[in-house]
Amino acid sequence: MKVAVVGATGMVGQVMLKVLAERNFPITELIPVASSRSVGKKILFKEGEYTIHSMDDAIAARPAIAIFSAGGDTSLEFAPKFAAVGTTVIDNSSAWRMDANTKLVVPEINATSLTKKDKIIANPNCSTIQMVLAMSPLHREYGIKRLVISTYQSITGTGVKAVQQLENEYAGEKGEMAYPYPIHRNAIPACDVFQENGYTKEELKLVNETQKILDDRSIAVTATAVRIPVVGGHSESVNVELHKEFDEKDIRKILNETSGVTVQDNPDTNTYPMPIYAEGKNDVFVGRIRRDYSQENTLNMWIVSDNLRKGAATNAVQIAEYLVGNGLV
To answer: Which family does the UniProt entry place this protein in (predicted)?
Structure first.
């Protein structure tokens, strides 16, 4: 089982290697891939040391699976080249997510749609993954009519440059800026770039990807995405309007029984999800579950997950596990 990790030296790529090791993914040969300035350098994986390869060398090696986390332009150029030699690509960028011929997969929801013919598989956006994992069982049971989402997103979603900016600001030092404003003691209501309609790309990902994953274009979705000075994970306030009446106890039972979801919801003991507890974990944490008394069939909840884990690396590795476990590679 040859496995290439493209973007192995990046923030998400490093977590992918960690998750592959933790979950004992059956790798017989690891092929780490990075930019030309890193080719020839060494990285550690489990007990071994591995040389970083060029993209061309990795393609020539014909790995069974290539997990990409190297940006949209790289994926658009090289994913088809891997696919052409028989490699199944799991891509973490936004390049293929809305492509009509590419499946957008959260394994607990729609991995069963995958076949051997799917040579490029899209990993959804981090903020989408954690939300739809909690929304999917509710949609099956009650039908979701509308979602109103506000996100409070970790700087790790921007990358190493953003983490360095925050650390510099903590220390009172000047340095390269990932954002147009300070992030320390601030909240920036702009994740990704603004579009002509006034929404950012991140906000539109929540709209379009949710409808595609849940396979229901009738779900109305609106979102506001905010960057905050947090490292551990993304948080989301989600207002869910359902087609049917519900009992809060049933909502909690459904979520408790959902694979990959942990309910943390006890106001009496100040138990609720927070990124400080989600960091380094693979689950999606749900709490503050309560009825919205301003509107029929509507509830609020608070959803938190480590965006580098289930929001990126863990979801990609789970897709790879499904492919191997079902003989699709």
So the answer is: Belongs to the aspartate-semialdehyde dehydrogenase family.
